[in-house]
Amino acid sequence: MQSNKFNNGTPRGESLRTVLAWTGAVLLDGVAVCLVVSIASGAGRWVWIAATACHFGAAGVLLAFGFSRREAATRDRYRARLYGFLVLFLPVMGLVGSLILQLACERWICAHGLVEDFQEETAHRVIEPPRLDLQKDLTTYFDEELAVQPAMDILAGFDDDLKRGAIDTLRRIGTPEAVTVLKKCLSDKSTEVRHNAHTALTRLDETFVAAIKTAKKRLDTGVSETAGRLRYAKKCLDYAKSGLLDESTRRHYLLMARDSFLAVRGADMAAETERILNLGHLEIQLGGFDQAVAHFQSVLDKDPGNVKAMIGLAEAHYTHGDGKGLQTVAHRMQSARTTSAESASDGILLHFWATSPKGT
Asked: What structural domains and CATH numbers belong to the chain?
């Protein structure tokens, strides 16, 4: 994501215009200096006028480049505005100092956007959640999911301070539903709300990317390859399901997750079951109905009471529009409603599919 006000990138054409502007300024101010030196040998007042005109021309070139009307102000054109005024009011020294500063910025100084600056200033006050896993406590689960609606109500109001808190809450929730609301804030009338939403989405994105990079680094070390591949696949899957990505990028990470899951060998029984369940959900999102059903059914063949496999099978039939298959699964789930689900979300989904009119 980029800053809204200034573009950090400098296209090739823009670089050429920057060089031409500086070349013109240096030549004009150089001519002005030569004319001033010639005055000492008895030149007339017209030389003074010519020297002044050249000096104004040097400043004018930079200002004209800096204030040129284009789609967005680049970093170089923004600096050119400042340098133009320095050249105008500080003959010779202004140009020399500005040129040195321009070269120094290009060579040694890394420019930051608004988001990066904001992150650096507030990093010490932010406590990031250590994990993005589902909460297993029922109260915590509902608190997290239902927190999105009050945040939406606040964001529909006019208090920017409350909106700032709501955006931070949504960032901490980090669910796809929260991301959807944050994306809507990018078109808010308030500049501050747009900036805060932009920052929140950037931080969420960086959290997922950092988790993937860490998992990939551990995988590359070769230590516990099975666990490493499972971890890497899960991080790719989490990123794909985050709601942050466009469709093509989302599909790319889904395929990366699937390839990594398929490459796992020698996992223990619990990890193998989880791997197959994840493959089933991946196939649903990739449009592979038959493969998804096969994965979930393979788990149920070994463990007929597996709640996660029954939920996945119901979702596969529903997504594919297979009413008859969904009805069969729903009847099977009704007899499993007394089964203890591993998480609150599983219990809720089991009850939903078992009692849904779609399945009866």
From this structure: 6-111 (no CATH), 136-265 (no CATH), 268-360 (1.25.40.10)
